[in-house]
Design a protein that fits this description.
The complex is a heterodimer of chains A (101) and B (1001). With 101 residues, chain A is of the alpha+beta class. Chain A has a single domain, classed as Folate-binding superfamily (Folate-binding fold, 2-Layer Sandwich), CATH 3.30.2270.10. Chain A contains two helices and six strands. In chain A, the strands form two sheets. In chain A, strands 3-4-5-6 form a four-stranded antiparallel β-sheet, covered by helices on one side. In chain A, strands 1-2 form a two-stranded antiparallel sheet. Chain B has 1001 residues and is an alpha+beta fold. In chain B, helix 8 packs parallel to helix 9, helix 12 crosses helix 14 and helix 18 packs across helix 23. The longest helix of chain B has 17 residues. The radius of gyration of chain B is 38 Å and the shape is elongated. The N and C termini of chain B lie far apart (96 Å). The chains are: A alpha+beta (101), B alpha+beta (1001).
């Protein structure tokens, strides 16, 4: 079982307290009705699914209840970093460099 | 012939405590401290099982958990039978009852052994090649046949009566394995002040120190040094010692699962103890000290009972005083087998010869054997064995410099001990997701860089020799402790005499002079895989070791190939003409050895498997004799049969009662969310399709919630309690999902909205009172609310008191009758229910359950999310376009409602269907077709979603989703069933009070 750090609680807690909530940084369009079918389909369904670092949304469901973002390595299952909602997405290349050091 | 093969003295058994046990119904005697394997060997019993495929007689091969052959079933009381236990791990107790497996009628005469004569048919991939057609035979004929003919023990059928416990633990350093490396590591870590857990799968801690009869540590025998070290550890309150505990699973972030066998070794266990305990350990640092496993030699007929690993022979001799035989041949490619020879000889066993593959064996171990007067033959190989149920002689051959073999003759023996060298036990390292690295010099895969906070110590990473292993253990313990404490220190490595590392080893099939088509040399004993099978697999095109493994089943036994993998790999590598590292190694996975289901389940069985949610009025329904149904985790009263009533009769009566007078219903399970804040109305306006901004205080509105893809996700009634406060209800099963959905949008898309969400599902008890007399029934109990329709019309909410208890009183209906839902604090639910029930009863009313609720709402054409809808349904499909705010600029899912496939013709729509024969009740889920006998592959028009007998209509009725259904009203269509086709007519989905006059009365 993974230990996941909640950026709001500031502690590591077991994975069972959390729920995965899909890819991060996909903002809901401000005016959905103005989107073409293709643009709307892109928002609804298209996700990156990378091999390696991925920005994901997680929710500390059985804790503070807050959604937050995390960078997780989809190969090793390691959480590289977590950050609060609204904070900028970290530079993944920079994280890779740091991880290698 | 009691203890015929027992030494006169020595070992760690208690010779003053004889223990009686039975094996296959026959009584034997052993001593306290014996394992089943050692006690059987002491009684001269080698034959303990039949092999998986060929039913060949098999004997005890090892002294550890990697045992491939000696699998037994242990019977206690009913519900306490355990199959497939490994005899070297089973400790005997008075009255132990063990049975061999996979034989009929008996071990010495097994009818299944005919498979052995047919073995040319049972080659690699036999099942895939033979049981192919006809396809329908697979399930009915082939699989049952294979399962009964092949296989291991029988799974027990009675419920397990034992208890299993679960323990979470945290420590600084977890040491897995308590041999010299593990003990040294635990010692170093403990002396550094770390919190240590030391576990070992064996009954006694100490590992190889317990059977090392010749080495001395600090001037003490190895076993005494182990005892003193363990005693010191046990006196340290920061150290937990766990014998009989297998570290079976290494998971992410140093989460390690241990299975502790607490009572299996006891004749009369304390009833307060669990049988097994699952330890879920989060260790800051881990030391893997799991040792190395001796490899069998792959020579013809190497599977005959009496053929055993050389180190196992030494363990049984020195630790248990049990001799593998009285005249022993030792076949080896490795120095360590010489220790066994010397120890056996010292115990009075006749060691006929040491047959060493190496041309000129030399070194300290060889010298010791020679000076003990043991005959040593170099360039000597075993080329076969004889004997039916036990080895009687070994055939020896001389390996000539060109690699060919000439006959040397036969050597009589009653046991043959073999050693092909040692394979570091990298299972747990591999489980930690580390990548093993091929070490050419060691001829073995060794742990590569650590991926987690772990390090290996001792022979599991290729360090051999007692002194070196101890030093390595101290190093590992110190480095683990240093990672958690600056006070780490490494104790001085004690002085050691003896225990020198042994050189040598071989991989793969050995050369011989016999007809290759007629002899079999086994690689995987448990799965009956021979060297020929692996070669055949390669010839047939299986080149990846992962494919060879699955095709031949080599390495798929309970030891996960710890005995067989390296030999199989070597044979494959030679056939493929590729070096071993290019052939690869299969992955070791959790669990290390089989773990009982009980240990995984721990306390999560029966009632504790899943939590049960009960409403405040649950006990009342039980007292009234209600039948219950499970709705998510809730127990809901399904119907209330009177004595002698069938379900059908009870539901018909309950329905009629609600329609004619009044019924009372427990609606407490509905999900409830309190939505509060200055922006609450704006928020709800965005999450529901309906407009909410202008909903007046004191008004209710039925709302539909969509996913962003436009599909109906949940529905419910929302009441505006105040300008900034809403009481939201959801479906019973949907409450957590809806709350998560709302939180998601509130936190991540619209954090600017000032709204708070609180789950109040269990704060409110909800009493639905429905029917023409509902108002009369509650009126005398209500204070502070004018119940008249003028003052409190349909779809309104008022706050006041009922029976003196604060209430949010909803006037609403899910039955089609006028009615109320009384929300009161859950703690007061039962008393209010009792008071309301008294009035309902006096008015000739009745309680009703979920079945009646379903019928009544279906008569009105009200949908149930998840029954009429299936995650692909938009509001218009179920005729609820009226609930979609046309003037709204945005709500969740709005854009999807104009997607091309949503606005296209041909979508399934909600309609009613009536069978021509009013007595026929359709099956829910039944497919609907345009023709009575449609041609094959004609797509269905739709399906039945709800179907009941309606007492109000005096006939059956159903709801269905049918393509373009609303345009087909009046059409005759068909429902093909197993009993024949049913003719039905499409009608409006509202069967009862279509004008809704009853609701507003």
């Amino acid at each position: 079982m993974l230990l996941i750090s909640c950026p709001y609680c500031g502690v590591e807690r077991p994975e069972i307290e959390f729920r995965h909530a899909g890819e991060a940084h996909i903002a809901r369009p401000a005016e959905p009705s103005k989107l073409t079918d293709e643009e709307w389909a892109e928002y609804l369904y298209m996700r990156t699914n990378p091999k390696g670092l991925m920005a994901e949304r997680w929710r500390h469901t059985h804790g503070c209840g807050r959604f937050f973002n995390a960078i997780r390595d989809t190969v090793s299952d390691k959480f590289v970093t977590v950050y609060k909602m609204g904070e900028a997405k970290p530079d993944l290349d920079q994280l890779l460099v740091e991880a290698a050091q | 012939m009691t203890h015929e093969f027992r030494t006169s003295a020595g070992g760690r058994i208690d010779r003053s405590s004889p223990v009686e046990f039975t094996f296959d119904g026959k009584s034997y005697q052993g001593f306290a401290g014996d394992t089943l394997a050692s006690a059987l060997l002491a009684n001269g019993v080698h034959l303990v099982g039949r092999s998986y495929k060929y039913h060949r007689p098999r004997g005890i091969v090892t002294a550890g958990s990697e045992e491939p052959n000696a699998l037994v079933g242990i019977a206690r009381e009913k519900g306490q039978n355990t199959p497939n236990l490994r005899a070297p791990q089973v400790e005997i107790y008075q009255g132990l009852n063990a049975e061999s497996q996979n034989r009929f009628p008996s071990l010495s005469f097994d009818i299944g052994a005919v498979n052995d004569l047919l073995s040319p048919l049972f080659v690699a991939g036999f099942y895939y090649k033979t049981f192919m057609w006809p396809r329908s035979f697979w399930q009915r004929v082939y699989e049952p046949f294979i399962r009964s003919a092949a296989g291991l023990g029988k799974a027990p059928t009675d419920p397990d009566k034992d208890r299993y416990a679960n323990y979470y633990a945290h420590c600084d350093v977890l040491v897995i394995g308590s041999g010299p490396a593990g003990l040294a590591a635990a010692n170093a870590a403990a002396q550094s002040g770390a919190r240590v857990i030391l576990c070992d799968e064996q009954a006694e801690l100490g590992g190889s120190l317990l059977h090392d009869a010749t080495s001395m540590i600090d001037g003490k025998s190895a076993a005494d040094w182990a005892s003193e070290t363990i005693k010191a550890l046990s006196e340290n309150d920061r150290v937990t010692l766990l014998p009989r505990t297998t570290g079976f699973g290494y998971y992410a972030q140093n989460f390690v699962a241990l299975a502790e066998r607490v009572t299996d070794h006891l004749a009369n266990p304390d009833q307060s103890l669990p049988r097994e305990r699952l330890w879920q350990v989060r260790a800051k640092e881990v030391v893997i000290a799991t040792g190395a496993i001796e490899r069998p030699l792959v020579f013809p007929e190497n599977d005959r009972p009496g053929v055993m690993m050389a180190e196992a022979g030494r363990i049984y001799l020195n630790r248990y005083g049990a001799m593998a035989g009285k005249r022993v041949v030792i076949a080896t490619a490795c120095d360590t087998a010489y220790r066994t020879a010397v120890d056996l000889k010292a115990a009075g066993v006749d060691v006929a010869v040491i047959a060493d593959l190496r041309p000129e064996p030399v070194g300290v171990h060889v010298d010791a054997a020679r000076s003990a007067g043991i005959r040593v033959e170099g360039a000597c190989v075993v080329t076969g064995t004889k004997g039916r149920l036990r080895v009687k002689s070994a055939r020896l051959g001389r390996i000539r410099p060109d690699g060919s073999v000439t006959v040397m003759g036969e050597e009589a023996c009653d046991s043959l001990l073999m050693s092909g060298g040692w394979t570091p036990n990298v299972s747990l390292y591999s489980q930690s997701r580390g990548k093993v690295v091929w070490d050419e010099e060691a001829g073995a895969y060794l742990p590569g860089p650590s991926v987690q906070h772990e390090r290996s110590a001792g022979s599991c990473h290729g360090v051999y020799g007692l002194h070196a292993v101890l030093e390595d253990g101290y190093r590992a313990g110190e480095s683990a402790a240093r990672a958690v404490s600056s006070a780490a220190k490494r104790p001085e490595t004690p002085s050691v005499s003896g225990g020198e590392a042994g050189a040598g080893g071989t991989l793969g099939a050995l050369p011989h002079d016999r007809d290759p088509s007629r002899v079999r040399a086994f690689i995987d004993f448990q799965n009956d895989v021979t060297a020929k099978d692996v070669k055949l697999a390669v010839r047939e095109g299986f080149h990846s070791i992962e494919h060879i493994k699955r095709y031949t089943t080599t390495g798929m036994a309970t030891d996960q190939g710890r005995l067989s993998n390296m030999n199989a790999l070597s044979v494959a590598s030679k056939s493929l003409e590729k070096p071993i590292p290019q052939v690869g190694l299969t992955t070791f996975r959790q669990p290390y050895t089989p773990v009982t289901f009980g240990t995984f389940a721990t306390t999560a069985r029966g009632e504790a498997f899943d939590p049960v949610r009960r409403t405040p009025m649950h006990d009342w329904a039980v007292e009234k004799g209600a039948e219950f149904e499970d709705v998510s985790l809730w127990k809901r009263a399904w119907y209330f049969p009177r004595p002698g009533e069938s379900m059908h009769e009870a539901v018909a009566r309950e329905c009629a009662t609600v329609r004619e007078s009044v019924g009372i219903f427990d609606a407490s399970t509905l999900g409830k969310i309190e939505v509060v804040g200055p922006d609450a109305a704006e928020f709800l306006n965005r999450v529901y399709t309906n407009p909410f901004l202008k909903l007046g205080v004191g008004r209710l509105r039925y709302g539909i919630m969509l996913s962003e893809a436009g599909f109906i996700m949940d529905d419910g009634v929302v009441g505006r309690i105040a300008e900034d406060r809403f009481h939201v209800t959801t479906t019973t099963g949907g409450a957590p999902r809806v709350l998560a959905h709302l939180e998601d949008y509130l936190q991540t898309e619209w954090p600017d909205l000032n709204v708070w969400l609180t789950s109040t599902t269990e704060q409110w008890a909800v009493i639905a009172v429905q029917g023409p007399r509902a108002r009369d029934v509650i009126a005398p109990l209500v204070e502070g609310i004018d119940l008249s329709t003028e003052s409190m019309p349909h779809m309104s909410v008022r706050e006041g008191r009922i029976c003196g208890v604060p209430t949010r009183l909803f006037r609403m209906s899910f039955t089609g009758e006028a009615g109320y839902e009384i929300n009161v604090p859950a703690s007061r639910g039962r008393e209010v229910w009792d008071a309301v029930w008294k009035n309902v009863e006096a008015a000739g009313g009745a309680p009703y359950g979920t079945e009646t609720m379903h019928v009544l709402r279906a008569e009105k054409g009200y949908i149930i999310v998840g029954q009429e809808t299936d995650g692909t349904v938009v509001p218009n499909d179920v005729g609820m376009d009226w609930a979609v705010g046309k003037k709204k600029a945005d709500f969740i899912g709005i854009r999807s409602l104009t997607r091309p496939d949503i606005v296209a013709a041909g979508r399934k729509q909600l309609v009613g269907v009536l069978t021509k024969d009013p007595k026929v009740i359709l099956e829910e889920g039944a497919q609907i077709t345009a023709e009575a006998s449609p041609a094959l592959k004609t797509p269905a028009l739709g399906h039945v979603t709800s179907s009941y007998y309606s007492s109000a209509l005096g006939r059956s009725m159903a709801l269905a989703m049918i393509a373009d259904g609303r345009d087909r009203i009046g059409d005759t269509i068909y429902v093909p069933t197993a009993e024949g086709v049913v003719v039905v007519e499409i009608v409006s989905p509202v069967f009862y009070d279509a004008e809704g006059g009853k609701l507003v009365a």
